[in-house]
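Hi R.,

Here are the chain sequences for the assembly we discussed:
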Amino acid sequence: MTFFDETSEPAKTEPTQVHISQQWKYEPSPLINCGFDPSGNYVFATARDFALVRFSLADGAQKIYKGHESWSRGMAFTHDGQHVITGGCDDKIIWWNVNDEADAPAPVRTVEAHKGWVRALAISPDGTLLASGGNDNMVRIWNVTDGALVREMSGHVKDVYSVFFHPSGEFLMSGDLAGQVKQWETATGNEVRNFDSKDLHTYNGGQKVDYGGVRSITMSPDNNMIAFSGLYKATNPLGAVNEPLITLFDWEKGEKAKSLVMDNVKGILWRAEFHREGYILGASGGSGGGVLGFWKPEEEKAFHQLKMPDTAVEMDLHPDGVQIATVHYDRHLRISRLEKKPEEPAKEG
Amino acid sequence: MKCTYACNSAEHTMARRQFLGGVLGGAAGVVGGLGALAQPSFAEQLKKEQKRVLVFNMAGGLSQLESWDPKPGTDTGGPFRAIPTSVPGVHISELLPKTAEQMHHLAVIRSINTRQGDHGKGSYEMFHGRRQTPGMVFPNIGAVMAKALGSDKRSLPGHVVVSNSTGGRGNNAAYLGPQFASISVGSGQPPKNSARPDGLEEQADLLRNDFRRQVNDQFTARRRTAKTDIYTQNYEQAISLMNQRDVFDISKEPQAVQDRYGDSEFGKHCLMARRLLENGVTFVQVSHSNYDTHNENFNFHLEQLGEVDAPFSTIVADLHERGLLESTLIVMLSEFGRTPNINKYYGRDHWGNAWSVCLGGAGIQPGAVIGKTNENGTAVAEREVDHGHLFHTYLRAVGLDNKGSFNVGGKPIPMADPAYDCIEELII
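And here is the predicted structure of the full complex:
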């Protein structure tokens, strides 16, 4: 059973009416990453106490999975909905049973994946391959079924922050700290071309630090545009003084078409996703607090922003296209809905 | 060196009054001379074997949790794991894997409580072993070592700061006199303007210096003051430095050696530091920036310590292999540590209440771990020490009497804050 009706026509969303509908707190620690499972029944979140937490969307009930020896930043789901896969700062990728009801769910499979953090995971459109990117500057492709290494790609010169499969499955994209996004041919591992999204990177000579990076990658429903999210205007990287940014590229030309920004927001755009209706949504977190932003690809500034109660550090879009999950420093998982808030029942008397 | 902090606080700078005080103080003597300064048992050895000091200044505040005192798996631990070192039972952060292999040459103090969270004040205290006091100006550790270890008798400056600055002389010697103040060099190159100008023939240069000395001698025969002495010393030191400018040129090292130190700025600075120490410079400071990680502490420590680990471990190993580690004190310090609490930007803030320093060589017990913090690093649990204890320990480690004094115009001024003492159990 799924939590949403896959057979009916998807409801038209109203992003300007977005509102927080539910929130649940994970008492032990702040949260790091989140993702809806394909059934839409659960949201999985990773936490700073190394846990993977399964939240039931029906009632917020929590199931805790422990196995990583560090924080986990990467998350992906197998297409059959059986497994959630996490990539950790302990260099490991772990497969877990989504529907594990044991008191202490155990890992299904563990793979030593990178020499350095596993920062990002993605599943191929046909569901057979898992891509990972890590601090060893490598991109690797794994067999989803048995965890065997299929191939690996080198070429990045900085940490790999994000991976994303082109909807055709023909290409794998990987973005790094330097704002470079490489397009790889999935079948061969050959580099096809490089998207230079250097606006998402800053080297601060005074502080002597690299900052920014391609935090997420998303593609328009018509596959004509690819977008990268992160930050810019990093005048003080060590002090969190920067602003969220999306760089939008023309897929065919490989050229930057537009920069998308937020109004009066300081932060990092941790994730941006194209909605099936053609707009982009994203979650920013940082010194400006947590903000959900909504953009039309043809307009530079967000057409709507929702200030959240606390800084956000990750976001995911439900398969129904209506619900958004965000995780926060204040230990909360929040669900927002892209529709008008139901009216409060009139009070009697 | 100039350091841009996240919190926009200014780096500590020497006041004009302090500078003038230093100049007017002139050449302070050591009460009782070198023999009185040194521990009796070390006095002879000091004469035979020059002691040296190498300080790494991790500007902005290195996180103890990402370096010397990791707390993995706790609410403050962050994502990095602890790894074993060459000392059984001693673990440090996985960000320092090569350093871990050299820990049998090093020691860690994990129980520092300076109660100081201000960049300028913290830096002053760690480099002077005292709190800043209005009206009193003290020399920093580099000037103290240069003076007390007798570098005024050496041909190269006794106090050198290797950084990315363009050169110049610091105002950090106070009453010891500017000849013990730091000279800044950087970029793996000899100091700027240290080569004889192209249009000046060697013979002409010798003649003009002879003429300068002759005029100076005539003048000082009747009007010699501390100021004229310093003027003369500065000129003679500059000439000496010009004659040995190759010491500062790391390209003189075999390529294989340069490769081991790496291509980073810090690696080049470490290699230059080794050359300076080998050629008789008493005190060398290498700075690395920037650790003021209020935001994305883990990404930035990954980057910064990734740059530090290989060159630092290489210089420790090199000094050992060349037989110099026994006479060279190494200290890696900051102005403070960073908060155990991880803030909402994945950052750590200023924290002076429970942090660490790494040191080794000279008279330091190799492999020692002094003090400990509690389970999640929020407080010192055993053997609390302050900056004053550290300063005393540095002096004792190079064989000096940490209770000794400088003679400043006939008045003895203790080299180290008399309110503190040495960490005895850390000394061989």
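Chain A has a mean pLDDT of 95. Residues 17-337 of chain A form a domain with the Methylamine Dehydrogenase; Chain H fold (CATH 2.130.10.10).

Let me know if anything looks off.

Best,
T.
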